[in-house]
């Protein structure tokens, strides 16, 4: 047996080193935190064929049960480690080394967890002992979190390998859809349209057609038809630039007399000056609302204007001024329609937080901005598909007014595919999303707490 030690900044990187060096059959003997990261000891039996480790497609009928047992082991580890030893996964006869290593680690964690309260009871009034106990508990939390990451890696790799063997065409499509940035749930829905026995090119067109049907877009150019629109979204998402592009397009087609710009952003330095400068360039009316009660009278005074565009402040969800701003927009309904502006360069969590923050404004559509700078469009597409929110406009540059257009589903999807084809595949992320889609996502995403 070949035993090696690996050092990395975190457990995920350490597992990648082990896999690259020893292969998928490597058994983790121990792991601990050291200065600057983690240390992992792993071993592999060079005489053991790979096919014996995880079994072939015909000889691994008990693999699904083993995966379920392993997931239950994670739950046991979170709730006391009492029954974890009895529920260790048995994935083929060749996994004895891995199973023994997991059992030893769990046993040591269990002993450490039960011994900490005994030490605390011996000297309950000792601050130094209390600090030592807290450090021990923190260390155990880290150990359990590292073990959960290890299990997620192993289960995800095993599940993905089994999926590739059973459905190679669907696995290929999953890889491409995940590379586009689409969520695991959406990928799973799209693969349901794959027809067994049909060529891959035919099925890929079916998958993209299904995505196009799920991606809703506004069928008409809302702003060009006139009305009052409020552009809301996080700071830096491109609200003011979007207003400038749409206002310029309207002025070029209908003239400046019927256009007015309103800003409620009195929180950022120079925000109102941006709108004023734009108004001077376009020769249109500009109003600054610095009091929530002034919005309704301001809009009443602009009732003769065919188009009124409202620029709002991008505020954090915990900012008390956000509630005032959303309340101000609620008071002027239904005369004001809201568009959520999302920068496609934002992380998925940022986009979801923006929707949950501003979703109560009864949105009529979204604007995708910074598309030209994005390395993935799947996160934004997944969000609007999940909530049934139509995409109204796509902005892909800084030029005013050229770099904005009405959204088209097939155009967005084609662009998402083209962007993903230019980037290297992230297999680690892809396998992780696949593992979560098979269930047990809550087990893997929750952090351990005592």
Could you provide a short overview of the structure?
With 450 residues, the protein is α/β, with parallel strands linked by helices. It has 17 helices and 11 strands. The protein folds into 2 domains: 2-166, no CATH class; 223-407, P-loop containing nucleotide triphosphate hydrolases (Rossmann fold, 3-Layer(aba) Sandwich).
Q: Summarize the amount of helix as a percent range.
A: 40-55%
- Order of strands, main sheet, comes to 6-5-7-4-8-9-10-11
Name the CATH superfamily classification of the largest domain: P-loop containing nucleotide triphosphate hydrolases
CATH hierarchy, class of the largest domain:
Alpha Beta
Shape by Cα distribution: globular
Alpha-carbon distance between the two ends: 37 Å
Question: CATH fold name of the largest domain, please?
Answer: Rossmann fold
What class would the helix/strand composition place it in? alpha/beta
Characterise this structure.
- 52% of the residues lie in helices and 15% in strands.
- It is α/β, with parallel strands linked by helices and 450 residues long.
- The chain folds into two domains: 2-166, no CATH class; 223-407, Rossmann fold.
- The longest helix has 40 residues, at 127-166.
